[in-house]
Structures are given as C-alpha cells and as structure tokens.
Amino acid sequence: MATSASPSPVATIHSCAKTVCVTGAGGYIGSWVVKLLLERGYTVRGTARDPEDPKNRHLKSLDGAGERLTICRADVLDYASLQLAISGCGGVFHTASPVANDPGLVAAAVDGTRNVMNAAAEAGVRRVVFTSSFGAVHMDPNRSSDTVVDESCWSDPDYCKKTNVLSLSLSLSLCAVPGSFHSSGPCGCRQNWYCYGKMSAELVASEVAREKGLELVVVVPSVTVGQMLQPALTASVYHVLRYVCATKTAYPNEVQSYVGVKDVAMAHLLVYENPSARGRYLCLSCVLHRAEVVELLAEICPMYPVTTRCQDESSARKKPYKFSNQRLKDLGLRFTPIKQSLREMVISAKANGHLLPPSSYRPSPL
Questions:
Q1: Taking every annotated instance into account, which residue ranges of this chain make up the domain NAD(P)-binding (predicted)?
Q2: Considering its fold, how many domains does the chain have in total?
Q3: Most buried one in 11, 43, 306, 331, CB count within 10 A?
C-alpha cells in the first residue's frame, strides 16, 4: 500500500484506546478506517443502522474482523443506541453523515454529531476524530486567488445557503447512483445544503468538545477517490466514472482537489494516535484541472470513451489554487499519487459491476 506513515503504538493515547467506535463503518471512508484499525491491532465497534444489510457484509471479511470487529445496531439520531455502541471505548471516529442536498438533513447531521459527542463524553472517551469535508472550507467567494487554502479557511455559510453555483461536493451528493454506471447526473438545485451541513456539524462538534472537555481532532478530506471496499457505488467515484464512460459529455473549465481514500483513512489514525494532534487537518493531495483528470483517466482506461471536450473552450483555463497539507505531512503521512488512486478506483468499480465493458458505452459527441 502506497500510503504510509511512521508506526505509532496503539497505546499512545491511553490504556482504553485499544477499543474504539467507528460510526458509519460501512461507508467509503468508514470502511477503510475500520480496515486500518484492525490491521493495527485495535478492537473495533462499528455502527450501522442495520448490521445485517448486505451493504455491510464486506466488513466481516476484513483481516481481524472475526476476532476484533463488532457491528452494532445504532443510529446517530438514536442516543440510546450510541450509548451502547460507545460505552467502554477509548476513542471514537465519527465518519457517519448524510450526503444529500436536503435542508432537512442539515439538522440530522448536526443533531447526530451532537449525540455522538455527548455519548462519547458520557462514556469517558478522551479523543474523538471527526470526518469533516472540504465543503466546509472552500465555499468562500471573497477569498483571494492568492490565498493558501489551509486549516484556517472556512466556507461562508450565507453563500452556501444562497449560491446557485453547484460545488463539486454538492453535485456529487445529487447524482443518481445506479447499480451499474449509466446515470445522467445531478439536478440543478440552488442551495448548497451539504457544505452548510458539514460545516455546521463540525462547529457543533467543536462546541461540545469544549463544553465536555473532549479532545477533538478533525480530518478535512477533499474529493476522495480510490479502491472501494464496500459494494455500493459512492458519489465521489460516480463523479469520476461519468468521465470514463462519457455519460458526462463535456468537462467544466474548473479545478478541484483530490485525495486517495487510503490516505484519508491513514490521516484518521495518525491524528488519533498522536497525543499532540489538535484541531483541523486538511487532507488533500493535489489540485487538478478537470482536463488533467480526464487525461489521467484516458491513460488508465484507454479502451473507454473518456470525455475529451471542455464545456468552455473560449475562456482561459482556470488555474489551480494554492493549498497546504503540511500538518498531515508533519505527522508522517506520505500521500499516494492520485493516478494510482484513480487506477485502484477503476479496478474496484469493475470488480463490483459498476463499470461495464468498454463496448457498453458510446463515445461522447464532438
């Protein structure tokens, strides 16, 4: 595995830390967090609304799962179920979050996070790792192009609520995600409730941590790509596959940040295991123009009708913004080349039946 970091003993936090809880254990990032925790010797309690749902079956096949993984029936909006799942744990990884452009789900994200934080405090947990989103960072129309995007940056909540420009995070959440890839893509909503919800949930986590004396560390991943452990197609993978299959007939003249899912999971472990880790950690490995993304995909998938046309060929090509991921590098994280993560994503999409043979897709019109 290309993702690597200096080894850190399980007992660096405190004596109870060998048992941890991971909310949303069956999700894209959650599954990888569970996998790496098991590989490092932790006993893991993963939460799922239905432990017997086939979409969680992959967790039982992970190395060490038979001895050290329990899938608990829990919902972040059901406080009593969280109490049972978290009781006796030394740490909590809160990866669960609704992904949709629905204002009603903002409350679910916020209330669910508050429940997790309060249940962790009640159980005597010392450290919580919260999975935020780059959507809580980049939605600020007044930020200068010369600004280095780092942990000090926040999205503008009013802009999120009123913008009619779909950020990538939002467009991902709106995509229909079929069993095999042939969907037409996102609809045109006007409010970015996903970014607003992630930012609001992170702020609530910080507020409860201060009130309850919890150590809170936040990982802020950008668009995440790489091998899928879970059988269900994720929104971020869908975003990339639509270019592989040319169901997205043209790419926008835009830039976007990307990171490999293995790196995101390793970042969670590093910030948990390092006693001095505090605050936010921006987790992105590169900023690419969409043209660079499709060029990489064409190299990886030469037999597929990869999208080649830009939606806006008359304007100057957008330039990547500056960013800093130095805080994670200082903890020992070495980021995987994004081409490798994209290749692993394509391989797993094929294995799970989400990406059909090349002959199933028609080239995009010129």
A1: 24-143
A2: 1
A3: 306
